[in-house]
Amino acid sequence: VVDVLQEIPTDMIGYFCNNILKRDWPNSIHVYYFIKTMSEWKEKRAGVHVSLLCMENNIEDGTFIGILYSELGSCTVLAYTQEDSCERLTRALRETRRIKWSDPLMFEAVLQKHTAAVHTIARLKGFETSVYAQSNILYMPSNDAKDLSLKCPADVFVAPLKPSHLPYIHSVWAHNDIYTLRELQTTLRLNGGFGVFRASDHQLLCWAIHTHYGGVGVLQTRSGCAGKGYARLVVNCISQALGKLGISPHVCVMDANLKSLSLFRSGGYQHVSSIQYITVHDFSSSDSSSSS
């Protein structure tokens, strides 16, 4: 039996991104750059296991499911549609056999208008859902990003991150429960990232990475080093670098992270949509699941 979800043909990826997803810009930005990034990683034979799926071989309606398989046995799922009713997205989630609902699932950055479809179908399948993070997408047009100015204090410098920095970065990262060190290493190797370093001893003070979804993420300042403008510096640096590549940088920031929201908004990022990161689990494990 043919599944309701089929791989988007490689030679149609460009058309789907630039002609279909761009109709709903910037709401489609997260899905757009996820597809672009995963396609590039596949071309580089990065060993990434990902499915980029449309419904019934029809890409014209803009319905998309992406599944990124983790080495931990879990899956990150992206769910998106341009249909106001969400009927086709709901049917795709309900009928497909490609999503193993009993596996640990994280629906990533689901637009607020699409969240009901995910929660409803998961519960219909006999599973519970939790909101791992209530968040926001913000973005900056590439033309604005490439023109950002970098003002670097004399006692620090900005440089690309190296693999040797990652064990520490991963150890203090709030989301190291869902992304492994090796996945972070793959992301840095293929996409890159930047750090702010102290000039005197080259200690890493603040950092950000160009993520698997093609945006800015893993932004953090070393404990005790906040309030000195390092986060602004590294955000401007990575945003400028992406802008020069023709990429409009975007970021996913939790509602509760008021400091980060303020940083991006005051730095010229525009709000796109509220989003949810949604975990799926057995009813029996709902008490121990992260919810916010």
Give average pLDDT, whole number. Answer: 94
Cross-sheet strand order for the largest sheet: 1-2-3-4-5-12-6-11
**Under CATH, the topology of the largest domain is which?**
Aminopeptidase
Helix content bin: 25-40%
SSE arrangement, N to C:
EHHEEEHEHEHEHHEEEHEHE
InterPro entries: Acyl-CoA_N-acyltransferase, Acyl_CoA_acyltransferase, DUF5645, GCN5-like_dom
Organism: Cuerna arida
GO molecular function, one term: acyltransferase activity, transferring groups other than amino-acyl groups
Protein name: FR47-like domain-containing protein
What would you note in describing this structure?
GO terms for molecular function: acyltransferase activity, transferring groups other than amino-acyl groups. InterPro entries: Acyl-CoA_N-acyltransferase, Acyl_CoA_acyltransferase, DUF5645, GCN5-like_dom. Residues 194-272 form the GCN5-related N-acetyltransferase Rv2170-like domain. Residues 4-119 form the DUF5645 domain. It comes from Cuerna arida. The chain is α+β, with helices and mostly antiparallel strands. The protein folds into 2 domains: 5-136 and 275-282, 3-Layer(aba) Sandwich (Aminopeptidase); 142-248, Aminopeptidase (3-Layer(aba) Sandwich), CATH 3.40.630. It is built from 9 helices and 12 strands. It has helices at residues 13-20, 29-43, 87-95, 115-124, 142-146, 166-171, 181-191, 230-244, 258-266, and strands at residues 5-7, 50-55, 64-69, 75-80, 105-111, 128-139, 156-160, 193-198, 204-210, 216-221, 250-254, 270-281. An 8-stranded mixed sheet has the order 1-2-3-4-5-12-6-11. A 4-stranded antiparallel sheet has the order 7-8-9-10, sandwiched between helices. Strand 9 and strand 10 form a beta hairpin. The longest helix is centred in the N-terminal third of the chain and has 15 residues, at 29-43. The chain is globular and about 65 Å long.
